[in-house]
From TrEMBL:
Protein name (Swiss-Prot/TrEMBL): Sensory transduction protein RegX3
Any one Gene Ontology BP term: regulation of DNA-templated transcription
The encoding gene: regX3_1
Pfam families: Response_reg (PF00072), Trans_reg_C (PF00486)
Every Response regulatory domain range: 2-117
Organism of provenance: Streptomyces griseorubiginosus
């Protein structure tokens, strides 16, 4: 897999590139946001994943993330020292597919890269459902992966859409956290649990319907549709 590493620290980039190379990745290193965006212009979806450090010298990392998403659907994993939920939700709202908080374990990073790649490959596979799910004001178009609330389209990331579509297929039914992680992230890796919480919070904010997804303490989540 080809991977674009956006990291301004050459020592960190060299060490990480060596690790990634040992695991079969073909790494292209961009030292700032401008280099990253230039690399994506001719290549586009030639990269399997973009690993984006938010602490860049020339541009705000969040701004770069938004520009990348406008140019390509290539999965973006943010690398950040900001551990608060609000910062991570902001990144997801801009189109990031996942995040890793510094300091991170290399095994964690590799697991997230592979999980994002598996999910993207699954989404790009031909076939699939050809229906829409309508739950009150919310309409979920499965073929086009488009969500609207009262007729207004809401921009969701891949995982946000997959999470919402999963819950919406069985309104009122409680989905266990392990089941959601398995079906949306295509992994049983326990570290994904915190990512799930952030995506639920992001969905509630984007849809402006905080009561739509109910947390069932100690079990998981369910979608509370009108009349359910």
């Amino acid at each position: 897999m080809r991977l674009l590493l956006v990291e301004d620290d050459n020592h960190v980039a060299a060490a990480l590139s060596a690790v990634l190379a040992r695991h079969g990745f073909d790494v292209t290193h961009a030292r700032n946001g401008e280099e990253a965006l230039r690399a994506l212009v001719p290549e586009g979806d030639g990269f399997g994943v973009v690993l984006l450090d938010l602490g860049l010298p020339d541009q705000d990392g969040y701004e770069v993330c938004g520009k990348i998403r406008k140019r390509t659907s290539t999965p973006v994993i943010m690398v950040t020292a900001r551990s608060d939920v609000r910062s991570r939700i902001h990144g997801l709202n801009l189109g990031a597919d996942d995040y890793v908080v510094k300091p991170y374990d290399t095994g964690e990073l590799l697991a997230r890269i592979h999980a994002v790649s598996r999910r993207t490959a699954h989404e790009d596979a031909p076939g699939g459902a050809d229906t829409a799910l309508v739950l009150g004001a919310v309409r979920i178009e499965l073929p086009t992966r488009q969500v609207s609330v009262d007729g207004t389209v809401v921009q969701l990331t891949r995982k946000e859409f997959d999470l919402l579509a999963l819950l919406a297929q069985r309104p009122g039914v409680v989905f266990r956290r392990e089941q959601i992680i398995s079906e949306v992230w295509r992994t049983s890796w326990e570290g994904t649990g915190r990512t799930l919480e952030v995506h639920v919070a992001s969905l509630r904010a984007k849809l402006r319907m905080p009561a739509l997804i109910e947390t069932v303490r100690g079990v998981g989540y369910r979608l509370v549709a009108p009349g359910v």
